[in-house]
Predict the 3D structure of the following.
Amino acid sequence: MSRIPQWIRTNLFASWPSALATLAIFWLAWKLVPPFVDWALVGAVWRAPDARACREAQGACWAFIGEKHRFILFGTYPFEQHWRPALATAVLMLLWIFSSLKRNWNWRLPGVWVAGLCLIAVLMWGGVFGLGYVENERWGGLILTLILATFGIALAFPLSILLALGRRSTLPVVRTMCIAYIELIRGVPLISVLFMASVMLPLFLPAGLTIDKLLRAQLALILFAAAYLAEVVRGGLQAIPHHQYEAAEALGLSYWTRTLHVVLPQALRFSIPPLVNTFIGLFKDTSLVLIIGLFDLLTTIKVSLQEPAWSGLGVEAYLFASAVYFAFCHAMSRYSQGLEQGPAARAVRAS
Amino acid sequence: MKRGWLYQAGLLAAAGLVLWFFVSNTAHNLETRRIASGFGFLWREAGFEIGETGAIAYGAADSYLRALGVGLWNTVRIAAIGVVCATLLGTLIGLARLSPNWLLAKLAAAYVEVIRNVPLLVQLFFWYAIISENLPGPRDALQPLPGIFLSNRGIVFPTPWSTPVLSGFNFVGGMTLTPEFAALLVGLVTYTAAFIGEIVRAGVLSVGRGQVDAAYSVGLTRRDSLRFVVLPQALRLIVPPLTSQFLNLAKNSSLAVAIGYPDLVSITNTTMNQTGQAIEGIGIIMAVFLTISLSISAFMNWYNRRVALKGARQ
């Protein structure tokens, strides 16, 4: 029984500063936690026909989330068709979970993705199998956030490999162009790249040819993510011992054989954990499409708040948004830590 | 080698062709929309007010150039104050995570985990909602410390030469941080500090336990061993990633446009909407941010050379 007092002494009251810190934290907790619990749970309104009941109560108005959850999750997608984006969201999340398991990392994986994405496209667009056609201006909510992040990383990846190889190339023109691209994109904020796609790109194209807003934003996210991913891949390329390059060259293998069969398989394995971190960053960054007016998860939440009946509930709404983003990002960051520390990582390092 | 040059010539030709395609389309599009390209618009009258002009006198009758100057000043101001505050808070959090006090270490770890996994934009909206919707009006302003007032009009605090006094519906005197500035500053600082905390922690951990023990055994005090043994070695690891966090903070300050703080991006956005000069506007944003990024990098590289091992390869 003496173990607990012993633990408290060594971990909470080891020295005067430590004891003071402990007491300060207890004092702050006593001051802050009960009012917060009062607001968030005890005095909260969970169900209400409109915001009036919320205004009279002292606590949080979670009824807002309950009332608006369909719009927040699915945006302006036709109401009676909401099962389609819901199913598409589930399929996309299953694809990610499937790909995160190491035993599925084989030649079947790309096939599963192609099949999964076709299913999602059919569900979202419709127009076949008796499903009504829904143009992508009406897509919104969680599925839009997931689609932007997924395609952002998936299409940025091949581009980033080319950029990273180009940056380490011995050909001066190739190297200069790749360095210029990577450093330019990394030196400017994402919002300027998004502005470029939304305002400047239409000017670049011949009159009459237009690309819709969603595709333009997606293009901006891909080009942006590729510059950051290129540095991740370059890190992987640099982690390969130099004798591997020399051995491949000594065998007389050509540049592309060397790169495809010796260098990249090793480099990409080193790049997987930081790649997941880049993906988390991109997932968070998709929220910026709000500024150019796309209906992602954050935009649907912000628009719900603009309704006069529900105004003034920003804190509740953004706490809910934080919780959703946190659930996704936290899961991914735990996964990436597992890759860095788990048996898989040791196998990577040993190989 | 010959084939290499052929590749490069092909690449250059392709890039030139794409560029020519874009330029000729743009020229045609601008002509049909009757937009004159060039920076002549900068000297025209802007015609919009700016809520927060800082050190620069500005009115709606002033030019676009002056408006953009105000925006640049606001961007530099938030970035400079943000970098200093984030470094201080980040160092505290990094050290708190290493504290022998279990409660403090866990609290700091939870802070880092939560902050890093929520988009900055959501956090900015959250802080802005707290300040503008949930704080009381100036008449019932909260006073956490005597002389400092928190209200939905922002944060007012005293300066050595004037103290804030409530007069009518708002405060007079002292220094005021507008709700937009306060939300942006709090958001940027708390967000970046979580990343800086992890960098500081990794840097301190990289200095081996043996180094500290050796410092004590030659008779250095705790303070001196930190100052002469741990810190010089930790800084070598801390400075390069710290630089990229400073760059991130400067770039993230552009999210000001979403909560209405008149930074460079927000004012350029208004200018682009009014004049249609999209290419020039985005060019200005990119040029300014590249300059800011290069300046921060140059300064931090200079500092890094000072703390790096003498004679070590950079």
Summary: The mean pLDDT of chain B is 85. Chain B touches chain A through 59 residues (CB under 8 Å). Chain B is about 65% helix and 5% strand.
